[in-house]
Amino acid sequence: MSELAAIVTGANSGIGLSTARELARRGAGVTVASRDPGRGGAAVASILRDVPGADVGFRRLDLADLSSVREFAAGVERVDLLINNAGIGMVSRGVTKDGFELQFGTNHLGHFALTGLLLPLLLAAPAPRVVNVSSDAHKVGRLDFDDLGLERRYGKMSSYGRSKLANLLFTFELQRRARRAGSALLSVATHPGATATNFFSVGPLQPLLRLFLRSADDGAAPSLYAATSPLIRGGEYLGPTSKPLRPSKDALDEALAARLWEVSTELTGVRFQEFAHN
Ligand SMILES: NC(=O)c1ccc[n+]([C@@H]2O[C@H](COP(=O)([O-])OP(=O)(O)OC[C@H]3O[C@@H](n4cnc5c(N)ncnc54)[C@H](OP(=O)(O)O)[C@@H]3O)[C@@H](O)[C@H]2O)c1
User: Helix crossing, 111-124 with 156-180: angle to 10°?
Assistant: First the structure.
């Protein structure tokens, strides 16, 4: 059995696939957590081609469906490292299976629920880490708790920015709660930088993206650093070169983070029992 059990969400493409491949190369047991069995299976096969004998497998996870998140979490036996990487960006208004605004529901609430459901297993690990792939786009995000569905006014970019702001608020609040509970859990966020992945869909011009943007391997570098560096203390927000970045004022607002935590608990029904009373 591998020494480190890692779960990477959205590991079937882009930054997540590069992250999963490199973790497997370094000897971790890796679960490719992906919503589509065909794409997930292809990712596993591609990792096995590059890293023969890798300890890698696929499990289905749709972050836009809380019943899928619960089913996934119920099947996990061990996890040392959770990389909340999956994300959608700048899409037209939609809702998740549970009726949440699509970008907030997928990028934040799905990962919030997943992390909370896996918390007992993470806390049983000797050195647990949670890495949340955020973005500097969080700076355009605003959280209005009176319009979480963005029914009054929807913008593709502002909705994406809001979900990435939620990723950062969650990262920092998780770290504070871990510390207060005396847990060794480290919670870290990253901004991969503009990276040539399916995130930017330009049809037949897709290969041209690589001329202007970072490669997926480069985009995965901060995730890998956050996941493996002994220098990580928790609560960092790391940029494309793995150096700390300054988050927005809102992202550092502890009252906002605490409120988001409560609201996310209400919406998902996931309680983070071990961190609930601190
Ligand atoms: N690329 C950039 O420039 C950039 C910059 C800053 C931050 N980021 C962040 O980096 C992360 C990875 O994105 P990427 O650039 O690698 O894009 P990508 O290639 O589009 O990868 C996104 C991954 O998320 C998965 N995903 C989407 N919705 C999901 C759901 N409901 N359930 C489970 N998985 C789902 C996708 O699965 P499918 O293949 O099934 O769609 C895919 O595996 C995202 O969180 C993104 O916000 C990217």
Answer: 20
